[in-house]
Write a structure and sequence with these properties.
The structure is a single chain. With about 450 residues, this protein is mainly α. It has 19 helices and no strands.
């Protein structure tokens, strides 16, 4: 008996050693590289917030026009999101992500040459269409490589890109605008668009040679490691599929749980995009209110602070969620923090206190995101996962249109950013409540009430 127990213990220890070794090796290869791609992606999407500091006067833009230009990106993004993710599932991440990066990089650099607001609108729509599928594609891709129990902390590391794009990207964008003004005979904001668009084009070729579509193709793992990963991921996918009926893409897209997650993500990202697009404007407004003067570069450094604090909090919060195994309140609580803190910032009597409240909002938004993205992957598999994750991201990113446009429109209407930021708080509050309510009422029969058509189902 003792020999048997000792053998079982040794086998278990060997299995754990294999698991730890494989997960670390895969994480070291994929997470930093994908994070670099997302850094470039998110920077090209949101650098319009800094461009606006000088672009607005040159193109004659109102706050409403800026909000529309920011938000039109998500029109093309929404239309092509689900088809793009299905294409990634069919053709593989290596080909499809390389295609996405090449087209978005060309269009992002082309923004440097817009002659008027109308052409800016058109290019923002095309940029969204080109980029569609990148983020949900990466979310789907990670489910091919990492067991569920590791996903939140690893998503937290990957999503560090969001605050990093502001911690690094905000001063970088501001520095290019300020010190690159006149380079190539272009205004500073045009130089910024040109320089920040080119890395995506170059990285497209790196993606083609570096990424591996599926674990069974991973020559950088040895035979035992590759076999363990293939078997583990196949078992998890089978377990997920066993708890869900076989379903078509259409039925997945109108699954109430998928739609509910989409609305929760809408609320979380509403706060993210309001901060990303308008925080430079908010900082400039605080400077005016409190009699301070900041250069464009100094504004960039100040904007970086809330995201730097949020980055640290996001890593710690993700690890806490994995350690406790709790997910729902790890989404709802930080979302509620963001909802409360952003309106409070409007009524504080010092720039330091106001920025502290804005920082709490950034902490809330960033802490909620990695834990949120764990939830849809627990009940979606196969083609359904490709469609469902893209649908959640599509609904959520409608906030990318709504947040800048509504905030800009209310700023023009009232002459202050206060009304728009009250809306941010309200939308995030609804998302926090919906997270708790939807998870407490979830059921296994969450498909659309449509007639069964087994022959039309896609696996």
């Amino acid at each position: 008996m003792t020999m048997t127990n000792a053998g079982a213990t040794a086998s278990a220890n060997e299995g754990m050693a294999m698991e730890t070794r494989v997960v670390k090796k895969v994480a070291r290869r994929l997470i930093p590289f994908l994070a670099v791609l997302y850094f470039v992606n998110y920077l090209d999407r949101t650098n319009i917030g800094f461009a606006k500091l000088t672009m607005g006067a040159e193109l004659g833009m109102t706050e409403t026009m800026f909000g529309l230009a920011s938000g039109l990106f998500f029109v093309g993004y929404l239309i092509f999101e689900v088809p793009s993710n299905l294409a990634l599932h069919r053709f593989g991440a290596r080909l499809w992500i390389a295609r996405i990066m090449l087209t978005w990089g060309i269009l992002a650099a082309a923004l440097a040459f817009v002659p008027n607001v109308g052409s800016l609108y058109v290019l923002r729509i095309l940029l969204g269409a080109a980029e569609a599928g990148f983020f949900p594609g990466v979310m789907l891709y990670l489910t091919f490589w990492f067991p569920k129990k590791y996903r939140v902390r690893l998503l937290g590391l990957f999503l560090l890109t969001l605050p990093a794009s502001s911690v690094i990207g905000a001063p970088l964008s501001a520095a290019i605008m300020q010190f690159g003004d006149g380079l190539f005979g272009l205004s500073g904001w045009r130089v910024m668009y040109l320089i920040e668009g080119l890395p995506a084009v170059l990285l497209a070729f790196v993606v083609w040679f570096y990424l591996t579509d599926r674990p069974f193709q991973a020559k950088w793992l040895d035979d035992q490691e590759r076999a363990w990963l293939v078997d583990t991921m196949a078992a998890e996918e089978h377990e997920t599929a066993a708890h869900q009926p076989r379903t078509s893409v259409l039925r997945t897209l109108c699954n109430p749980r998928v739609l509910g997650f989409g609305f929760v993500y809408f609320g979380i990202t509403y706060g993210l995009y309001a901060l990303s697009f308008f925080l430079p404007t908010i900082v400039a407004g605080l400077a005016t209110t409190f009699g301070a003067t900041y250069s464009v570069f100094q504004t960039g450094l100040i904007v970086a602070v809330p995201f730097l604090v949020g980055a640290v909090a996001m890593v710690l919060w993700s690890r806490h969620s994995d350690r406790t195994g709790e997910r729902v309140w790890h989404v709802a609580a930080p979302t509620l923090l963001g909802a409360v803190s952003i309106p409070v910032a409007l009524y504080l009597d010092s720039p330091f206190a106001a920025m502290a409240a804005v920082t709490l909002c950034a902490v809330g938004v960033l802490c909620a995101m990695p834990v949120f993205w764990y939830l849809p992957t627990t009940f979606l598999a196969g083609t359904g996962a490709a469609a469902g994750i893209a649908m959640v991201n599509s609904i959520g990113n409608l906030s990318g249109f709504g947040a800048p446009y509504v905030t800009g429109w209310l700023t023009d209407l009232t002459g202050s950013v206060k009304a728009g930021l009250w809306v941010v708080g309200a939308v995030m509050l609804i998302a926090a409540v919906l997270t708790v309510v939807s998870q407490s009422r979830r059921s296994g029969s969450a498909d659309c009430p449509t007639e069964e058509q087994p022959e039309a189902r896609l696996r």
